[in-house]
Specification:
250 residues, alpha/beta, five-stranded parallel β-sheet, three-stranded mixed β-sheet, 12 strands, 46% helix
Amino acid sequence: MQQHLFIKGKWQAAQAYTTLKSPYSGEFIAEVAEATAEDVNAAIQAASDARAEMRAMPAHQRSAILEKLADLLEERRAEAARIIAREASKPWKAALAEVDRTVQTYKFAAEEAKRIHGETIPLDAAPGGEGRMAYTLKEPVGVVGAITPFNFPMNLVAHKVGPALAAGNTVVLKPAEQTPLSAYLIAELLEQAGLPVGALNVISGDGKTIGDVLVTDPRVSYITFTGSPAVGTEIRSKAGLKRVTVISMP
């Protein structure tokens, strides 16, 4: 099996591939694409181009896409668990449990897509504000760069991709080098669910090569990372004024 990159709604061949093996048995699983800096740039541009369509999409439509994704994943539960079991060396029962939890996570995101709203604020806390009201609106941030770890490869992707799409953002997803196949499956299912072209791009490969471009590119508005404290600290130091969420793992 050869796994290509997923950029702008298309499966794109890479210049190089790396052999993915089971960490438990050492058996061959797949040849996985290694994204170059140029590939990352193309993925970011695709996500940037899709911003307007995602921003304009009504909440009920974003919710329906995520609900459809959850349904499709549930239908392919055994296949998804098999991917997790092979690439992450999880016991079958644990892999099935992760798939089930991932389905729930996308359903939660689908529900929250309908509940994204601002606030109405009375202004009479200050003189002259009597009888006046203000309101706030929540708006998509734009392109989200998501970097995920190996230990829960499908559900931790869901924790980033689900909320980002629910809020009308676009995503460039960089999965862990050991566990990219479960992320590519989600890209396939979201395509089937009707997600606009370019709204999700998945690029596998070297963490530093991809991460440095994602973190420093001005078209990326938000970085969400789960991984080691050392890498999280490095990301924060390079991100400048970008919004960054780092979830550190010991």
